[in-house]
C-alpha cells in the first residue's frame, strides 16, 4: 500500500514542481529557496491534483481510470510549460529571486533548537492524534472524509455527495480536500485513513516551510526561526493542523499568496519584472477559494487590499496590470469553483438563513456584539500553551524588545497582509452577527479554526517588519 | 560548521544585543520550550490512553452488519434514543447520527422515521417498545436495528 501511495503523492508533487519552476534560478544554492520551492510544490501540487480529480469526476462521471487521464494531461501541460520556460532561458538568468539570505548569527543555534524541538513536538502530536483519531476530528470525518467516501463509493452517482439532505455536513463547501483524498484512495485502491493524515501533515509542514523560508529569504534565517517557533507552539494552529480539517490547507494558501507577492515585489526591485510570482500568487489565492468558502472572501480581500495599497504608492496603472496577471493565475481554479457552485453545490446555510427582517434584527441585537467580542478575546488570550501565557503577550514583548523597521522594502506587503487579515476577521465577525444558528454554539465550534486560518499570515506580516536580532544589536 | 573566528564574532553579536532584546528572545524561546514540553507530555498521556482499534473505528463496526441489508444508494430514515441538547456541533445524539452517516455513505440518512427503511441506533440491550408504523426487520444485537415502514 505504501508503494501505491507514492504514485498519487509523487504525481502531486511533480505537478507542484513543474509549476514552481518560475522561482528557480540556475546555480542558486540557497537552502531557504529550496525549502520554499519544495513547500510550495507540495501545497500547490496538492491543490492542482485536487482540481485534476474534480475534472475526472465531471468528465468521466466518477472517479476511476479517467483520473490517470486528467492527471497525465495536467502533468503533461505543466511539464511542457516548465520545459518551454527553461528553453526560453529563464532558468539561466543570473538575478536571484532575492538577495542571498544572511548567514546565521550567534542566536541562530538557540532559535534553531527552539524551532526544531517545536517541530518534533508537533510531528509527535500528529502521530499520536492519527492513532487516537484516525478519521480526524469532527469536521474532518463529518464533512471532508464523508464527502470523499461519497465521491468514491457513489460511482456514477457521486453527485449525491451534494444532496441538500445533508445540510450539517455543508455540501456547499468547495472540494479541494475531499477531491484530493478520493484521488489518492482511488490510486491506492482502498479507503485508508493514512491518506487524509498524510495530506494534513503535508499541508502543516508546507506551511511551516513557506513561513520560515519566506522570512529567511526576505529578512534573515533568525526571523524565520522565530516566526516558525511562534507558529508551532500556539495550540490554536497545532490543534487544528493535527485533526485533518481544511483550515490548515486554507491557511497555507493564504500564506503562500502573501509570500509570493512579497517575493514578486523584491524581485522587481532588483531585476526585470517577472510574472511568475504573481501568477503563482493568483493560483494560491484561487486554491484558497477551492478549499473553503472563506477562501472566496480572501480572494476578494487580497485583490482589493493589494490594489489599494499599491495604487496609493505608485498610481493605478502598474497595480492594475499586476491584478490582471494575479487574476490570470487564479482563473483556472475560479472557473472550476464557479462550475461547482452553479452545477453541484446547494445553497449555503448561512445565506439561506437570511432575510431582510431576520438579518436586520440580528444586526440590531447588541448582545450578539458582546458575545462575539467576549469569545474572540477569550480565544486570543487563551492562545498560549495550556494555561500559561497568550501568544499575543509574547508577541507584544517581542515588539517592545525589537521594534519595527518601518522602512523595510517589504513594508507594503506587510501592510497588505495585515490589512487582508483584518478584513477577513471583519468578514467573519459579520458572518457571526448575521448567523441564523445559535450564536454561542457557532462561535464555540468555529472561532478557533478561523483564527488558525489567518495566524500564519499574520505572523508573516508581523515578522516581515519586526527588527531581526541582527538589526537589534545596533 | 561555524569557524572558530566566526563563533567568536557571533558571540560578540549576542553580547551586543540590548538587554531588552535578550529578554525578548528568551521569552519566545522559553514560551516555545514550555509549550513543546506540554505538548509532548499530553501526546504521551493521550497515546497511552488510546483504545485500539480507535473508539471511532469500534463504533463504525456496529454498522457493518446492517450495511449488507441496505440498498447501495438512496435515502433512509434514522431513529435513536431521545435527542440531547439541540446544538450545532457536539452532543451525543448528533455525533452518533453523523457517525452512522459516515459509516453508511453513499446512502443518505435523514433524521426522521418517515422513510420506507429506517435505521435504529440504540444502546446495546435496548428493548424497543412497538414503534407506530414501523416493523422491525432485524435486530443486529448491538443496538443497531432495521425497520420497515408499514405492516409485516
Describe the structure.
The complex is a heterodimer of chains A (474) and B (152). With 474 residues, chain A is an all-alpha fold. In chain A, helix 2 (31-60) packs across helix 6, helix 7 (194-218) runs parallel beside helix 10 (247-270) and helix 12 (293-314) packs antiparallel against helix 13 (317-343). Chain A has one domain. In chain A, 74% of the residues lie in helices and 0% in strands. Chain A contains 20 helices and no strands. By secondary structure, chain B is an alpha/beta fold. Chain B folds into two domains: 4-49; 55-149, no CATH class. Helix content of chain B is 44%, strand content 17%. Chain B has five helices and five strands. In chain B, strand 4 and strand 5 form a beta hairpin. The radius of gyration of chain B is 28 Å and the shape is elongated. The interface between A and B is large, with 72 and 53 residues.
Largest sheet of chain B: 5 strands, mixed
Q: Low-confidence parts of chain B, pLDDT < 50 over ≥5 residues?
A: 84-90
Give the largest interface pair and sizes: A-B, 72 and 53 residues
Instruction: Quote the beta fraction of chain B.
Output: 15-25%
Summarize the main sheet of chain A: none
Query: For the largest beta sheet of chain B, what order do the strands appear in spatially?
Result: 2-1-3-5-4
Q: Give the helix level of chain A as a range of percent.
A: over 70%
Span between termini of chain B: 82 Å
What string gives the helices and strands of chain A in order? HHHHHHHHHHHHHHHHHHHH
Structural class of chain A: mainly alpha
Strand content of chain A: under 5%
Amino acid at each position: 500500500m505504501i508503494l501505491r501511495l507514492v504514485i498519487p503523492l509523487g504525481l502531486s508533487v511533480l505537478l507542484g514542481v513543474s509549476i514552481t519552476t518560475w522561482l528557480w534560478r540556475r546555480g542558486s544554492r540557497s537552502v531557504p529557496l529550496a525549502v520554499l520551492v519544495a513547500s510550495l510544490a507540495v501545497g500547490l501540487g496538492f491543490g492542482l491534483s485536487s482540481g485534476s480529480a474534480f475534472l475526472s469526476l465531471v468528465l468521466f462521471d466518477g472517479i476511476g481510470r479517467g483520473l490517470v487521464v486528467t492527471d497525465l494531461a495536467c502533468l503533461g501541460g505543466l511539464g511542457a510549460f516548465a520545459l518551454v520556460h527553461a528553453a526560453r532561458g529563464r532558468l539561466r538568468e543570473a538575478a536571484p529571486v532575492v538577495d542571498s539570505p544572511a548567514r546565521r548569527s550567534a542566536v541562530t543555534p538557540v532559535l534553531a533548537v527552539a524551532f526544531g524541538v517545536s517541530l518534533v513536538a508537533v510531528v509527535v502530536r500528529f502521530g499520536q492524534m492519527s492513532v487516537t483519531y484516525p478519521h480526524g476530528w469532527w469536521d474532518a470525518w463529518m464533512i471532508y472524509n464523508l464527502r470523499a467516501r461519497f465521491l468514491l463509493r457513489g460511482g456514477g452517482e457521486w453527485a449525491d455527495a451534494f444532496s441538500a439532505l445533508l445540510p450539517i455536513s455543508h455540501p456547499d463547501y468547495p472540494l479541494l480536500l475531499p477531491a484530493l483524498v478520493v484521488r489518492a484512495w482511488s490510486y491506492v485502491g482502498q479507503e485508508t485513513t493514512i491518506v487524509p493524515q498524510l495530506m494534513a501533515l503535508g499541508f502543516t509542514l508546507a506551511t511551516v516551510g513557506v513561513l520560515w523560508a519566506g522570512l529567511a529569504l526576505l529578512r534573515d534565517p533568525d526571523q524565520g526561526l522565530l516566526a516558525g517557533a511562534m507558529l508551532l507552539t500556539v495550540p490554536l494552529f497545532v490543534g487544528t493542523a493535527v485533526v485533518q480539517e481544511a483550515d490548515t490547507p486554507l491557511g497555507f494558501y493564504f500564506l503562500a499568496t502573501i509570500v509570493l507577492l512579497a517575493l514578486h515585489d523584491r524581485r522587481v526591485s532588483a531585476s526585470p519584472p517577472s510574472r511568475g510570482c504573481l501568477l503563482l500568487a493568483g493560483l494560491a489565492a484561487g486554491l484558497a477559494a477551492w478549499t473553503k468558502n472563506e477562501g472566496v472572501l480572501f480572494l476578494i480581500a487580497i485583490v482589493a487590499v493589494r490594489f489599494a495599497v499599491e495604487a496609493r504608492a505608485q498610481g493605478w496603472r502598474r497595480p492594475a496590470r499586476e491584478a490582471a496577471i494575479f487574476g490570470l493565475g487564479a482563473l483556472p481554479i475560479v472557473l472550476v469553483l464557479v462550475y461547482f457552485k452553479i452545477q453541484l453545490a446547494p445553497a449555503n446555510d448561512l445565506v439561506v438563513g437570511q432575510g431582510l427582517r431576520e438579518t436586520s434584527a440580528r444586526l440590531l441585537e447588541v448582545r450578539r456584539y458582546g458575545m462575539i467580542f467576549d469569545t474572540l478575546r477569550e480565544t486570543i488570550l487563551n492562545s498560549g500553551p495550556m494555561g500559561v501565557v497568550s501568544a499575543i503577550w509574547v508577541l507584544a514583548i517581542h515588539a517592545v524588545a525589537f521594534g519595527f523597521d518601518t522602512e523595510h522594502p517589504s513594508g507594503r506587503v506587510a501592510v497588505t497582509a495585515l490589512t487582508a487579515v483584518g478584513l477577513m476577521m471583519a468578514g467573519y465577525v459579520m458572518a457571526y452577527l448575521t448567523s441564523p444558528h445559535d450564536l454561542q454554539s457557532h462561535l464555540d465550534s468555529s472561532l478557533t479554526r478561523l483564527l488558525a486560518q489567518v495566524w500564519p499570515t499574520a505572523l508573516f506580516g508581523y515578522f516581515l517588519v519586526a527588527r531581526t536580532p541582527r538589526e537589534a544589536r545596533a | 560548521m561555524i569557524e572558530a573566528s566566526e563563533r567568536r564574532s557571533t558571540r560578540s553579536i549576542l553580547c551586543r544585543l540590548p538587554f531588552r532584546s535578550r529578554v525578548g528572545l528568551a521569552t519566545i524561546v522559553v514560551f516555545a520550550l514550555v509549550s513543546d514540553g506540554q505538548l509532548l507530555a499530553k501526546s504521551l498521556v493521550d497515546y497511552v490512553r488510546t483504545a485500539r482499534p480507535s473508539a471511532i473505528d469500534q463504533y463504525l463496526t456496529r454498522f457493518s452488519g446492517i450495511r449488507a441489508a441496505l440498498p447501495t444508494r438512496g435515502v433512509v430514515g434514522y431513529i435513536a434514543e431521545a435527542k440531547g441538547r439541540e446544538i450545532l456541533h457536539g452532543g451525543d445524539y448528533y455525533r452518533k447520527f453523523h457517525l452512522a452517516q459516515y459509516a453508511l455513505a453513499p446512502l443518505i440518512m435523514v433524521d426522521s422515521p418517515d422513510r420506507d427503511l429506517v435505521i435504529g441506533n440504540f444502546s446495546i440491550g435496548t428493548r424497543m417498545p412497538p414503534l407506530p408504523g414501523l416493523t422491525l426487520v432485524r435486530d443486529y444485537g448491538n443496538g443497531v436495528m432495521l425497520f420497515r415502514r408499514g405492516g409485516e
